[in-house]
Amino acid sequence: MTPASSGVGKRMYSNIVLSLASRLGAGHSASDAELQELCCPWGTRPRVAVLRPWFGLKTKALILDGSSLKALRRYRAEALAGPAERLQEFALARLEGRMPMPPLRYGVIAFTRLGCSPLSEQDRELLWHAFQVPLFEQLRGPDGELLAAECEAHQGLHLHNGRLAGNGHRRIASTSWCAWSAWQAAVDETPCACGATAPRLVPVPSQRALGAGFTLLSA
Q1: Are 79 and 107 in contact (CB under 8 A)?
Q2: 3-state DSSP call for residue 3?
Q3: Residue 212 lies in a domain
Q4: Which residues constitute the domain of residue 155?
Q5: Residue 155: which CATH number?
Q6: Is residue 179 part of a domain?
Q7: pLDDT tens-digit profile of 174-203?
Q8: What pTM did the predictor assign?
């Protein structure tokens, strides 16, 4: 259980989600939300099966509403994507033998959202044990807009197209992503091993001192 599971942690990030609803989601409804791109981290476009997220996707990927085992086998997915909590359920089912499927070739994309915790080491170990492919986390907004994405160097989530820079959005997204007592959010502007120049959003333990190139973001 992560620190976010405590009553205090839940109250902290639920308050921030309510704030985001008025500051980022004003004037938007499910009916007028734009379809979002899947944004694969690979240079090629593999066959991706997607466990249906909370937002609409503009993609030719197979969208799974339930277990849909027959469709999944027929599609022969090379990668898997979906909300982190649904991927964890899927992983447990696969490890228990209830969800046999061909092995993946590329990786797993996990969608996390504002107001929820990032993937923990335990989450990552579970998904690796179940699928045996690299894991890529993507932080998504209320309507599924991509805010930050993990690269192949796995050293944080690169801010997407600078859309969190300026007018406070970077601070809002960062603090709501890491809004529980044991963690704090920071933006790492040091060079990334992947070669991308966009700053990276990283969660760090609250007791850890930050080095040069890190900017602490507090609520």
Answers
A1: yes
A2: helix
A3: no
A4: 3-159
A5: 3.40.50
A6: no
A7: 555 554 334 566 778 888 999 988 888 887
A8: 0.74
